[in-house]
Amino acid sequence: MGTELKQIILVRDDLKLPKGKLAAQVGHAVIDAVFASNKKLVKKWKDQGMKKVVLKVKDEKELLLYESKLQDENIVTCTIVDAGHTVVSPGTLTCLGVGPAPEEKLDKILGHLKMM
């Protein structure tokens, strides 16, 4: 089968987003990361079942640290910044869409994080 692919969404745990808001932000991250990714890679990921995992990070600082580490490995990332119409202030960084990318590469960087 070759390389297993997955997508990861990192969500800031310090924001304590309500479930509906959390779902919307994760949705934005999934879509933005897919749009930014190589189309052949996305097709392969889709054919494999579109594996994705939502993990939590402590705060914005930790989220940005992982963004930098992922970018150093040439893994697609997309930051989601909220417009501030409902729960959080305008310009709040809520989550990070990652990949799809090889599962092995993602796990080396993010494998120790806990699921939401």
Overview of the molecule:
The chain is of the alpha+beta class. The protein has one domain: 3-Layer(aba) Sandwich (Bit1). It contains 4 helices and 4 strands. The protein has helices at residues 19-36, 39-47, 60-72, 103-110; strands at 5-12, 52-57, 77-81, 93-102. Strands 2-1-4-3 form a 4-stranded mixed sheet, sandwiched between helices. The model has no long low-confidence stretch (mean pLDDT 95).
Please identify the top-level CATH class.
Alpha Beta
Helix-strand sequence: EHHEHEEH
In total, the number of domains comes to: 1
Strand content: 25-35%
Q: Which structural class matches the secondary elements?
A: alpha+beta
Poorly predicted ranges (pLDDT <50, ≥5 residues)? none
Shape: globular
Q: What is the share of helical residues?
A: 40-55%
- Average pLDDT rating: 95
The CATH topology comes to Bit1
DSSP E strands, number: 4
The CATH superfamily is known as Bit1
Question: In which order are the strands of the major sheet placed?
Answer: 2-1-4-3
* Second CATH tier, the architecture: 3-Layer(aba) Sandwich
Quaternary status of these chains?
single chain
Task: Note the main sheet.
Answer: 4 strands, mixed
**Gap from first CA to last CA:** 29 Å
Number of helices: 4
What radius of gyration results from the CA coordinates? Answer: 14 Å
